[in-house]
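Predicting holo structure, 4'-deoxy-4'-aminopyridoxal-5'-phosphate bound.
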Amino acid sequence: MKHNFNAGPSILPKEVFEEASRAILNFNDTGLSILEIGHRTPLFESVLNESVALMKELMGLDANKEVLFLHGGASTQFFQVPMNFLSKEKKAAYLDCGVWGTKAYKEAAQFGRVEVVASSKDKNYSYIPSGYAIPEDATYFHYTTNNTIEGTQMHHIPDTSVPLVADMSSDILSCSMDFNKFTFIYAGAQKNIGAAGVNIVIVDKKFLQSANSGLPSMLDYRQHVENGSMLNTPPVFAIYVCMLTLRWLKKLGGIQAIERLNNEKANLLYTTIEELPVFHLPVAKENRSKMNAVFTMHDAELEKVFLSRCKEEGMVGLSGHRSVGGFRVSMYNALPLSSVVAITELMKDFSNKYGS
Ligand code: PMP
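Done. Tokens:
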């Protein structure tokens, strides 16, 4: 058995894999594969409609929100958001907390003025800045709720009247929060929602009215809304996998139920690491991510030994991102507690053997 700690694409529930495999051969007893049905058929329309409805239900979205399933990954949103809502006369505020947030504001600077209100670059993005001011005249304030690479997570929603835009790619649906406080949310599906190849966008209808016109159709949110995410052929299979994963989450008890499990996993991992002297946690305690735990070892030589022990135990996806080094344990929704138990046991053994 593998323990899959991949940062994304990452582990999905086993029952989703099983159901998706069946649908590749025979979708809903139609005698057709999910890969060969037209997207403008009632068969697929019901998949898309159910996916949208489940997103709204699980997140408790109000009637002012539109949910879209789009192509292009979260990286497309880095420029599509400012392309739709910024201009050379307008300003957007950004929080710079890591690789993805940096990419986002650099793309935005091509479309309008960008003010980086705070950055944690000074300490290799190992914390989330606080005490910064968000300029009242900003068109929106953008931040990344969970910094996948650096292992930090914002555990509160900033208190501001400026429209909030959030990249939730790596922690969406993992913990409860008032999602209606956000004007715009985007997330690549490949961590907590489903398969790679689709992007979830949640946008406030009123905010949408302020969007720029004259944009290429495929980059114009209003056209996507008018066409119900069917402006062109949507990523049919990726959306289908999202629907299955959302059904799984609903059956489990929704976000509150998964949040309890996610808290349990993160607590177990962090408290174990804190007690083991061979390991080091670089991230500020109050900003630790419950999705991606980053750690290093005091003795860099031992890192290779630890990694090969993990491999022997069937643990995959543990190498830290090249910009951070060390290790990263990704604990997305579908990761069972037993995988975290397995790695913490291994860490304790390892520390007993090599810790002095
Ligand atoms: N934002 C965050 C927080 C991410 O973790 C990632 C990918 N891991 C991205 C954006 C980019 O996503 P994509 O590869 O779907 O463009």
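Residues 8, 73-75, 100, 144, 148, 167, 169-170, 188 surround 4'-deoxy-4'-aminopyridoxal-5'-phosphate (CB under 6 Å).
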